[in-house]
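Below sits the subject:
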Amino acid sequence: MHISFLLHNAYGVGGTIRTTFNLAAALAEHHDIEIVSVFRHRDAPALGAPAGVRMSHLVDLRKKSPTYDGDAIEHARPAAVFARGDSRYRQYSRLTDARVGGHLRSLEADVVVGTRPGLNVQISRQARHGPVRIGQEHLTLDSHSYRLRLEIGHRYALLDAITTVTEADAHAYRTGLRLPGVRIESIPNGVPEPAVAPADCDSKWVIAAGRLHKVKRYDVLVRAFADVVAVRPDWRLRIYGGGDERQALHTLIGRLGLHNHVFLMGSVNPLEAEWPKGAIAAVTSDRESFGMTIVEAMRCGLPVVATDCPHGPREIIDDGTDGRLVPVGDAAAVAEAVLGLIDDDGTRHRMGRAARAASRRFDPGLIAERHEGLYTELVRRGGRHHSHSALRTGVHRARGAVLDVMYALGHKAGDALRKRRAA
């Protein structure tokens, strides 16, 4: 099969980029795979190009490039096709509408895969008849704004399938939206086997990693670790990642007197060499769309203490077997779970081995087989099998037109209100 992935920016750093690269590389062992990046801002992908995968881009943002598009008049005009509720909307324009649309109308592929809501909407509206249309959800339906959920509910009806990274989110799509005929499947992200030796779980380090963002609740982890070191002062915590919460966390660490116990390590890429330096991993998020760092830690042989937040962790960790699940926002429970593993060498080692074994189910080859099975089935049926009816397609186009009018009226009303307030 010829499978084409449409990615926001393949040259940056992020979870969606990494998981798309992992999937594309695994599929490329048996299929013709390409990744088309809407934007390109550097010469080479920051994560390294996936083996066996062709890469191209649609809009060149490299200022020294002879094909630089940043000064194009159309790039200054707001997008009309890309979903307005998508968090990346302001980066899109009439230029991207035209470039993505031209690409999709000329694409000779068996399957086209979108990797974020705005691009999934463009595929539903602009892809030619023929290729199977897949929309990937890398976050969660519930995390999107009302405006974006409204657009998803209308536009996704012309997709062939939606894939989510958790069964919980697949259930939200099946029950929260009316998308008759659209296949909804949960397929987790793939995480490669580490190239480094697994942790022996004998160090006295707890490891955490991810964006320093409020939703990750590193403040809960730092407070929990204050309780840990009160009992076991010989243990330390490393937090890897960058973000806008760094200063607040630095202040909290100082206030709790943890400068010699908690260390903000900054961003490290690749991270896999850091996990085996620890004995325990910790994740204290309020919510997760999947939990890549949980799987990465487990693949390196670490037991993970994680909050039982919606979606990801409970579908990855078997509580008491390969890790621990604790209530969201409960620093005391986090400390108790971490101390339980610190004080019981046998349990810590057993859970570490179990984590490594259980996490093999996320191997990219196995995950790619599930995507391949879905794509093969839909290709055999024929793309857009649920929307061949001209009447059905017309109805969805009419609904989309109504949605466009609603958005336009909303923008005009908002502009008028701002003018009145300014006066």
